[in-house]
Amino acid sequence: MIESTGDGRTWVLSGPTSGYAIGLTDADELLHLHWGPRIAVEDAEALAAQAPPPYRPFESPLDGHEEYPVEGGPRFVRPALSLRTPGVRGTEWSFAAAETDGDELRLRFTDALHALGLTLHYRMRDDADVVERWVTVAHEGHGPELEILRADAAVWTLPRRDSWRLGQLHGRWAAESRLVRAELTYGEKIIGSRRGHTGHQHLPWVALDADGESTEERGEVYGCALGWSGSWRIAVQHLPDGQVQITGGAGHDDSGLLRLAPGDSYTSPVFAGLWSAGGFGGASRAWHAWQLARVIPDAAAERPVLYNSWEATGFDISEERQRALARRAAAMGVELFVVDDAWFGARTSDRAGLGDWTPNPERFPRGLAPLADEVHALGMGFGIWVEPEMVNPDSDLYRAHPDWVQHHPGRTRTEYRNQLVLNLARPDVREHLWRQLDQLLGSAPIDYVKWDFNRCFTDPGWPGEEYPQRLWVEHVHALYGLLDRLRAAHPGVVFESCSGGGGRIDLGILSRTDQVWTSDNTDPLDRLAIQHGFSQLHPARVMAAWVTDSPQTQLNGRRSSLRFRFVSAMAGVLGIGGDLTRWSEEELTEARGWVELYRRIRPLVQHGELHRLRAPGGGLSAVQFLRGEETVVLAWLQAQHYGEPPPPLRLRGLDPAAVYECLESGAVHRGAVLAHQGLHTGLTGDLDAAVIRLRRRSS
Q1: Which of 18, 286, 435, 629 is 20 to 30 A from 274 in CA distance terms?
Q2: Per-residue 3-state assignment (H helix, E strand, C coil) for 138-175
Q3: Per-residue pLDDT for 375 more than 80?
Q4: Quick check: 331 and 587 in contact, CB under 8 A?
Q5: Which H helix or E strand runs over 287?
Q6: Dihedral of the alpha carbons of 35, 40, 43, 44, in degrees to the nearest 10
Q7: Cα of 616 vs its chain's centroid, Å
Q8: Which intervals hold domain Glycosyl hydrolase family 36 N-terminal (predicted)?
Q9: Residues contacting residue 463 through CB under 8 Å, at least 6 positions apart
Q10: What percent of the chain stands above pLDDT 70?
Q11: On the CB side of 694, how many CA atoms lie within 13 Å of its CA?
């Protein structure tokens, strides 16, 4: 809901529990007024009428209060907008118009000197407390090109508090999404990626709570998440007067964005914000519900249990071996069979074949269709792995078009994993990939594509291009356009975003893919911390998690039971990636039981409310999913000390007056007792795990 005052210079956006307010001064300065619990228009008017901060030498009255600070004038904070033209740098804005279109508010400003237009977009839907913000910058004159160095999507202003605690997700390859919280000190805290993709090192999300007092279920939490799959930056500024502002958008400081010719415009990605009074758990559930309703394609559909052949075969692929794995997977109850790397070109190792997306004639002499048909006959969908944005120097594509990769003339072409990055900003490259992938998806009954990206940008050059910096942005737009085009042409195909694990997970890619590969680390214990951090922002419905062989020879050599591996992976979209031809009959039978159990609890896991009962930290950890009359608890015990039984789990979201029956044991529990005294898991020893299902009894 959008409301404005009678003079049309103050606006209030309202969601179910929260509100957002902004207002114009007489000098056309757009000031932030409120972000927090719902308020009335009259409250916003009272805030707008308050006296400005007192004059202080060497300080600006706008800093910390302006809704979208730009470069130029009496401002000393980090600018959200920075551009460069011959002779004049910075902007000076005049308010032009305000308009509403359904749940979207657009505030338009102009800079007469540059003939530049700036539109601030706001959207807050009636069913969500998420505020979606983005900007459009347009060259509306006839003069020279304007270079946009930065055009951040939004600046978020927090209310004054004594102190703030900052939460973020950091990590590295195979150790992504690690949650850390620390006091926000004065100055700037900057996170981001200079790698051309979202990155394993930081997810584009921050959460702040006042005075470090919020808990999982109580306290105010402010969160911000950026929807961009390329290089990005979020800056959290704790200003000298105690005010806190958060700015974020595409690009890193040195990259530049693009040049605008007369008539051109640039629209930033969305930078979404959320206020919650329900603690970190309440904020997470609000983020999850919004993504399932507004971001993720076909989110109401349940994601199937998949099997992926990579850890069984590596590069040693044969059609017959894939058939053998498929038969065992089908007998286990798997619903989607995926052929990973090495089905194409001259791909016998990671040194060759990338870029040649046609089946290897020796391994698949009749193409992929016969294998896909047999997989379908076994009752499973059929999927493949691709990495379209990359190319091996040893490939037909590179030999034909060595100029199609990002590179600088006269400089060494850096190779990671023996591969180079294609310049998707080039129209000929985009069109070639479209033709290849469209033909591939039409050549066999393919239901699923695992889209990988195993390479950061290192040589972002574009010989012959006047402004090569634009490839940073246009590569991402080309990726989005290619995915959109393929989805439209092949509506039955679903896509998973993968980037060496969790290297490209953000709201932008999630608006075009059905799930994401959370991490290359499939160790079930390591995964608990990764999944705990991932759940701060993203729902279990998109979090792919695999059961692989034990010991985990690719990473740490840890041994764990099939029970522990399955219960760990059942907290997301269940997948299996071990070598099933080496599993014993007893293991296959046990695994079939776990798959059957997951399929029963899948509606709760993928579409229920998530409650993090205990964070992973060496002892007992657990999550609870709640939907309708049912709830399921997944619990893990890392280690137990002598004489210290695991504590009971205090469940959440239950009706205290209701009675709940455990579907495993038949035991009956009172809701109030489960919430206050807790539920005993019965876990003992090291690396133990349990699934506990409860159903509310009808009165």
Answers
A1: 629
A2: EECCCCCCEEEEEECCEEEEECCCCCEEEEEEECCCCC
A3: yes
A4: no
A5: helix 279-294
A6: 60
A7: 21
A8: 29-260
A9: 403, 407, 408, 409
A10: 100
A11: 25
What token pair was written down for 576? 């299996």
How far from 11 is each of 41, 128, 374, 667, CA to CA, in Å?
7, 18, 59, 54
Look-up of token digits 């029970």: 563
Q: Which amino acid is at 678?
A: G
Q: Is 70 exceeded by the pLDDT of residue 553?
A: no
490: its two tokens: 């092949």
Residue with tokens 């009894």: 697
Summary mean pLDDT of the chain: 96
DSSP symbol at 352: B
Check: CB of residue 324 under 8 Å from CB of residue 279.
no
Under 8 Å between Cβ of 355 and 310: no
**CA separation for the pair 70, 75 (Å, rounded):** 8
**Nearest CA among 82, 133, 134, 132 for reference residue 111:** 82
Nearest to 136 by CA among 156, 115, 149, 151: 151
Residue corresponding to tokens 């347009």: 138
Q: Are 406 and 421 in contact (CB under 8 A)?
A: yes
| 691: nearest Cα among 662, 658, 671 | 662
Paired sense of beta strands 164-170 and 18-24, if any: unpaired
Residue 351 is classified by DSSP as T
Residues 6+ apart with CB under 8 A from 14: 1, 2, 3, 20, 38, 124
CB 354, CB 391: distance < 8 Å: yes
Number of other CB atoms surrounding residue 614 within 10 Å: 18
Specify the amino acid at residue 435.
R
Please state, as a whole number, how many other Cβ atoms lie within 10 Å of the Cβ of residue 429.
22
| Closest by Cα among 645, 572, 563, 649 to 605 | 572
Distance CA 461, CA 469 (A): 8
Give the tokens for residue 43: 């409250």
Token pair for 94: 């005049």
> Quick one: tokens of 658?
């209701």
Please list, in sequence order, all residues whose beta carbon lies within 8 angstroms of the beta carbon of residue 39, skipping any fewer than 6 positions away: 12, 19, 21
Q: How many CB atoms lie within 10 A of CB 189?
A: 16
Catalytically active residues are: 452, 520
Could you give the CA distance from residue 53 to residue 281 in angstroms, rounded to a whole number?
Answer: 36
pLDDT mean over 448-467? 96
pLDDT digits (tens, 9 = 90+) for 665-686: 999 999 999 999 999 999 999 9
Distances (CA, A) of 436 to 318, 388, 397, 443, 542: 23, 9, 11, 11, 27
